[in-house]
Each structure stands twice: as C-alpha cells, then as structure tokens.
C-alpha cells in the first residue's frame, strides 16, 4: 500500500510540473464522470420481465418478438418450448401492458391480454395454437 501511495504522489508531482496539468486533469475528470453516470443510468433504466405467450413454431417466435419490440423495448426473446417471452425494456417509456397488447394484436394470447378472433384468424395454419 505504501509503495502505491509513493508512486501516485510521484506521478502527481510529475503531472503538476508539466504545463498541460490543468488541461489534462479537466479532460480526465470530465471523461470519468461521464462514463460512470452513463453506466449507472443504463442499469437503473431497464427492467427484464417474463411473460407467458401462446404460440407454436419459429414463425410464431419471429412474430411475437417483432411485435414485442415496441418503443422502449431493447430486447425480446421468446422460447418455443417454455412459451415464455423475456422482455427487457425501459419502464419510463413503456410497460408490460403495452407490450402484451401489441403481441395480442399480432394474434398471440398473453397472460393478461387475449388475441381477438380477427387477429387470431390471420395466423397461418401452423401457428394456430388454440
Ligand atoms: Cu407459428
């Protein structure tokens, strides 16, 4: 620990002695604060939830994931076997109700929102899950 301190002090003295001291520290301070706040915001601003969505095949998967990717959704992945959709979204921009409504409009039942017959009828025969 002592050696580290001495090295830091020595480096600081060298930097202090140079003409560009003020500029250098200003830049590094700005960059550091910017990156740290950015990463904090990313972590705090997204939420991942799992929603049960009815479907059969890979075509369903593509349709469900496409429908789920509304504004504010950064990631949507549906599992054909478990019928679970994992969505990562920004709670300030959207919510699971909006996502589920959009999926139901594409013809797929979700936990809270059921697809209307009109939307369901449009599905190709391989995708009829009811
Ligand atoms: Cu399908």
Description:
- The structure is a single chain.
- Helix content is 52%, strand content 15%.
- It has 130 residues and is an alpha+beta fold.
- It has a three-stranded antiparallel sheet.
- The longest helix has 25 residues, at 21-45.
- Mean pLDDT is 82; it is low at 33-37.
- Copper (II) ion binds next to helix 3.
- The main sheet orders its strands as 1-3-2
* Beta-strand share of residues: 5-15%
User: Span from first to last CA?
Assistant: 67 Å
Task: Specify the structural class.
Answer: alpha+beta
Question: How many DSSP-defined strands?
Answer: 3
Shape summary: elongated
What order do the helices and strands follow? HHEHEEHH
Bound molecules: copper (II) ion
Query: What are the low-pLDDT stretches, counting only 5+ consecutive residues below 50?
Result: 33-37
The number of helical segments is 5
Helix content: 40-55%
- Roughly what is the average pLDDT, rounded to an integer? 82
Supply Rg.
25 Å
Largest sheet: 3 strands, antiparallel
Please render the helix and strand layout as text.
Elements: H1 2-17, H2 21-45, E1 47-52, H3 58-68, E2 73-79, E3 84-89, H4 96-105, H5 117-121
Antiparallel strand pairs: 1-3, 2-3
Helix pairs in contact: 3-4
This protein binds copper (II) ion.
Copper (II) ion (CU) binds next to helix 3.
What keywords describe this structure?
130 residues; alpha+beta; three-stranded antiparallel sheet; elongated; binds copper (II) ion
Outline:
The chain has 130 residues and is α+β, with helices and mostly antiparallel strands. It is built from 5 helices and 3 strands, in the order ααβαββαα.
């Amino acid at each position: 620990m002592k050696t580290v301190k001495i090295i830091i002090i020595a480096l600081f003295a060298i930097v202090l002695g140079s003409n560009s001291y003020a500029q250098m520290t200003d830049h590094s301070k700005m960059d550091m604060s910017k990156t740290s706040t950015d990463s904090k915001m990313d972590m705090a601003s997204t939420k991942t939830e799992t929603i049960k969505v009815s479907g059969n095949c890979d075509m369903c998967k593509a349709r469900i994931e496409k429908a789920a990717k509304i504004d504010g959704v950064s990631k949507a992945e549906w599992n054909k076997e478990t019928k679970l959709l994992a969505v990562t979204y920004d709670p300030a921009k959207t919510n699971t109700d909006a996502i589920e409504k959009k999926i139901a409009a594409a013809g797929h039942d979700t936990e809270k929102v059921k697809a209307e017959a009109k939307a369901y009828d449009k599905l190709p025969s391989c995708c009829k899950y009811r």
